[in-house]
Amino acid sequence: MGLTGKSNVKSSLSAKVIRKTGEVIDRGVVSEKMITSVFANLIVDALQGQTVGIGTFKYHDTGTGVLAENVADTALQTPTGLAKATGTQVEGEAANIYKSVATITYDANYSITEHGIFNDNNVLMDRSVFEAEMVKSGDKIEWTYLFTFNAGG
Q1: More confident residue, 66 or 92
Q2: CA distances, 34 to each of 21, 23, 135, 136 (Å)
Q3: Over the stretch 140-150, which tens digit does the pLDDT of each residue have?
Q4: What number of helices (H) and strands (E) belong to the chain?
Q5: Among 53, 57, 55, 103, which Cα is nearest to 82's?
Q6: What percentage of residues in the chain have a pLDDT greater than 90?
Q7: C-alpha distances in Å from residue 135, one per residue of 25, 60, 64, 73, 113
Q8: Of 26, 42, 56, which Cα lies nearest the Cα of 117?
Q9: What is the C-alpha to C-alpha distance for residues 35 and 71, in angstroms, rounded to an integer?
Q10: Alpha helix locations (H) across 14-129?
Q11: Is it the case that residue 51 has pLDDT exceeding 80?
Q12: 38-42, 91-95, 131-135: range with lowest mean pLDDT
């Protein structure tokens, strides 16, 4: 927390369900939670000049786990087993916001309750748990992950 009591780091996860029928349901922001300790430590390492592959945190995965997020999380609780989707990496609405967008197509019926963003070495950056989104085979969810680094504090 900075001197003003505001966190200098904020993450949020949005979801857009795309039914195989073509219906689109925008769920908006489904979670605003915490960054893992391992990721925070990795940021510190990167700032110290080590080569850590920071640019590879772009892989989205989902699951059906319901345990609350914890800074010690290293994986999703119950992944669907589908291949991770590669997100596009761009600036968000400002230069201090990292944005990754990926769409996952589901191959069966799932009650999706968790999302994670990973690097190419399967290190978990952020895990979000939210109200269940029921998907059927052929449905898609477009995930938008924002990670904001606020200056100051």
Answers
A1: 66
A2: 34, 31, 25, 29
A3: 999 999 887 76
A4: 1, 9
A5: 103
A6: 59
A7: 11, 17, 11, 25, 11
A8: 56
A9: 7
A10: 37-47
A11: no
A12: 38-42
Q: What are the distances in angstroms from CA 17 to CA 36, 42, 65, 138?
A: 26, 32, 19, 11
Rounded CA-CA distance 73/3 in Å is: 28
CB 136 within 8 A of CB 109: yes
- The pLDDT value recorded for residue 59 is 94
Give the separation between CA 63 and CA 127, rounded to whole angstroms.
10
Amino acid of residue 130? F
CB contact set of 117 (below 8 Å; sequence gap of 6+): 57, 58, 59, 60, 61, 87, 100, 124, 125, 126, 145
